[in-house]
């Protein structure tokens, strides 16, 4: 009896683990065709879809099947990793479905994607996904020619190092040097790193020593219809009622301020913030902080990516940070504000989130003076003997 392989796909799950504890951080949704057929593996399945010009249909079926499986099989609190092809996703369409929390969903874009030949279209799609609350991963990093172009276009929250750089890394100084360079860039930009294709304890130990925190591969589990069980990594980004109460209690009574949890989700937004930013609490509470319309800049006026704002620096270091911010509200004239982020801790000293206060600033003058100081310092450094 004739069957359609594209209508008989199934989702399998592979765990992503902390390299040191082997606690499970999340699971990647992988697609398989009908078991025992030539289309069981994804390469053959996608080749069939391309041949029949049904790639958008396959992408939609993968999302639908993956979401159904996630809701049925994944433990609450896990992070869902799902492949996404921006060629077939409208910015108005929720690519992960309505049910699994967007804050716990990471959409993976492969470095091999032809979308990197259309960087502006890719940036628009990534921005649309972020506006829905998703995090973005750059998959297969180190496998293609895109490299730095891909990193700049996507500005990912997660980098997944391609398995070709991982296999045999303990015995290969070239692979070690390449992975170490990726880790250094990721560390500087506060990007999480996952090494793919780990099959041996030696590879795991080498990667951990280099500063890679997460791993995926047969050492931790093969792709299975029923996800591998185990202890979930304690999530830093979930703020329950008690933590939300702490964050809201830390809000100042006067001025413009908002509070976020460790997942960068806004949990409190006061009246001062509503007036200054012209956004009411119902419009922003529950969304990630970089969606609040703030264009973060450093003390020199240099535009920073959203993961390098004062708030992010505070969450990462546990120390207060200052910043200069330009803000445009609904197409109005750009206004300038000064921002201060401070950590919020629980009774045991653990950081549960941060509060950021902001107020009008004479930032244009501040930036001009800072640029003069920076240029003078740079000229002075260039005159120093080498």
Per DSSP, the total helix count is 12
Main sheet? Answer: 8 strands, mixed, barrel
Mean pLDDT: 77
- How many independent structural domains? 2
Strand order of the largest sheet: 1-2-3-4-5-6-7-8
What proportion strand? 15-25%
Could you describe the 3D structure shown?
- This protein is α/β, with parallel strands linked by helices.
- It folds into 2 domains: 5-215, EAL domain (TIM Barrel), CATH 3.20.20; 241-369, Beta-Lactamase (2-Layer Sandwich), CATH 3.30.450.20.
- The protein is built from 12 helices and 14 strands.
- It has helices at 42-51, 55-73, 119-131, 148-154, 163-166, 173-189, 201-210, 241-249, 271-277, 281-284, 310-317, 363-383; strands at 10-18, 24-32, 79-83, 105-110, 135-141, 158-161, 192-195, 214-215, 256-261, 266-269, 294-297, 321-327, 335-345, 351-360.
- The strands form 2 sheets. Strands 1-2-3-4-5-6-7-8 form an 8-stranded mixed β-barrel, surrounded by 5 helices. It has a 6-stranded antiparallel beta sheet with strand order 10-9-14-13-12-11.
- It is globular, with a radius of gyration of 23 Å.
- The protein starts with 9 loop residues before the first strand and ends with a helix.
- The model is unreliable at 290-308 (pLDDT under 50).
